[in-house]
Amino acid sequence: MRRNTDIPVPTRSGTAGSGHVSGLKFRYVARRHQMAATGAAVILLFMFMAILGPYMAPFDPMEQNLAESQQRPSFRHLLGADNLGRDILSRILAGARLSLFIAVASTFIGLMPGVLVGIAVGFYENAASNAVLRFTDVLMAFPGVLLSLALIAVTGGGFVMVVIAVAATFVPGYVRLARAVVLAIKQSEYVQSARAIGAGDMRILLSHILPNSLGPIMVQTSLNISAAILIASSLSFLGLGIDPSLPEWGAMLNAGRDSLRVAPWVSTFPGLAIMLVSLGFNLLGDGLRDILDPRLR
């Protein structure tokens, strides 16, 4: 009887070959999405600073020493000292927790009502939905910083009000984004098939609409965190944010603006921290968009 040679037999060389292919695939994916990897690495660095920064700080970030006011960067003060003799490195490390918490908290507080309203407006198209969209258009006509300034002027400053004011600037964008995604998904064939077999609105929303809309929302959330850091820092820079004595990066910028000629390091290093963490979230958002959008693969 003739032996059948068409059936492949696993060998050690085949196993090694598959491992080699997997390694090539991993390197290809890493190279293709290096933008997202770079952004994630920067964010992890600042998260590490936010968690362990206060314990790693060489000085108390609130301790004043007028004898070392505006001291240049040295071995004692690696990034120099500010106008009140406070160590800038210690304040940046302590401020990472505060600035990131404001940005993340305000973004997710704006995400929840914005996405829920956007999904409802996109799924149920009626007169109420049109009224909500017109109100959303009015809010989107204002720049984020201007809208935050108006809310702070009405409600007063403080930590909680800064978070709420920054969160309010993201709600209209989430409403528009969620509505656009829902309008595209609910016309798809699998949603029409689910409705044809008797699936209710809640079943369709939870099983089809919401899971398939998470990709664009995740990308927008990453970009909004970057915007939240800039808005919160702008409010603190203008003196309308949290307590200026706290080590918040925008407040540190404001503290050094009058001494830029004689002590530029007082504002330079907090500004670099704001730039780097914003860049990290922007790179992560752009990378996630490339990963999650099949048209860009």
Plain-language structure description:
The protein has 297 residues and is mostly helical. It has one domain (84-296): MetI-like fold (Orthogonal Bundle). The protein is 71% helix and 0% strand. The chain is built from eleven helices and no strands. Helix 2 (34-56) crosses helix 3 and helix 3 (88-123) runs parallel beside helix 6 (159-185). It is elongated. Residues 1-22 have low confidence and may be disordered.
Short overview:
The chain is 71% helix and 0% strand. It is mainly α and 297 residues long.
Looking at CATH, the homologous superfamily is: MetI-like
Rg, nearest Å: 25 Å
Identify the CATH architecture: Orthogonal Bundle
Q: What structural class do the secondary elements suggest? A: mainly alpha
What would CATH call the class?
Mainly Alpha
> What is the CATH topology?
MetI-like fold
Calculate the mean pLDDT score and round it: 81
Q: Any idea how many domains?
A: 1
Q: CA-to-CA gap between the ends?
A: 50 Å
